[in-house]
Amino acid sequence: MSKTTEDFSRAFYPFLHEDDKKPPELTEELRFSLLEKVRESDEVRARFFEDNKDAILAAALQMAKAFHRGGKLLVCGNGGSATDAQHIAVEFMHPITVGRKALPAICLANDMAMVTAVANDVSFADIFSRQVIALGRPGDILLGLSTSGNSENIVRVFETARRMKLATIAYAGGDGGKMAAMHAAGALDFCLTVPTASIHRIQESHVALYHTTWDMVHTYLEHRSMVEE
């Protein structure tokens, strides 16, 4: 274990480093730690949804209108957010609820040949922008995830999407970073920010957010008067 890793472990899990403790005591402390993390996760999600419920519904309605008019969803992120982006695309393309229609969605992190070609020949900051230039059309939706709100390739793809007249929706965390600033300046339609420094809590809230959004989008599509306005 490296010094940095050990320092982190001692700071957040001191009971693991108390060698004189008996296993039953350790188990009890782990039970407490587990339940505390679950409680914190529940609290973060509940607070986020309460504070952002109107914006979430508005973003879902904008997505539903785009799908109704023949648009598609382009979604992207890095690392864990890339896997969330894949999950989102699958949810829309392959709905598991009977009666819900498949909706066109593409994860821009999926094509490793494309991602590495652009990263090698142009820059990593352009890996998503180049794909939106080729695939995006006015009326499409771009959904970008960044737990910090500062991922340069996500910021840049939002700028590209804005110029191309795509609807733009950001999932962020912490204080929202550069993406929150873009939204405040009117350069981003929605920035849904989970206000915590914990990457785990942010990602857990993002999962709940896109599952809930998927459901709201389909609910709006079932009410044609809502999407034909």
Description:
The structure is a single chain. The chain has one domain (20-227): Glucose-6-phosphate isomerase like protein, domain 1 (Rossmann fold), CATH 3.40.50. A five-stranded parallel beta sheet has the order 2-1-3-4-5, sandwiched between helices. It has 229 residues and is of the alpha/beta class. Helix 2 runs parallel beside helix 8 and helix 5 packs parallel to helix 6. It is built from nine helices and five strands, in the order H-H-E-H-E-H-H-E-H-E-H-E-H-H. The longest helix is centred in the first third of the chain and has 46 residues, at 23-68.
Shape: globular
User: Tally of extended strands?
Assistant: 5
Number of domains: 1
- How far do the termini sit from each other? 59 Å
Q: What Rg do the Cα atoms give?
A: 20 Å
Q: Helix and strand succession?
A: HHEHEHHEHEHEHH
Q: Per CATH, what is the topology? A: Rossmann fold
CATH class: Alpha Beta
The average pLDDT value, as a whole number, equals 93
Strand content: 5-15%
- Low-confidence runs (pLDDT<50, min 5 residues)? none
Question: For this structure, what is the CATH homologous superfamily?
Answer: Glucose-6-phosphate isomerase like protein, domain 1
CATH architecture: 3-Layer(aba) Sandwich
What brief labels describe this structure?
229 residues, alpha/beta, Rossmann fold, 9 helices
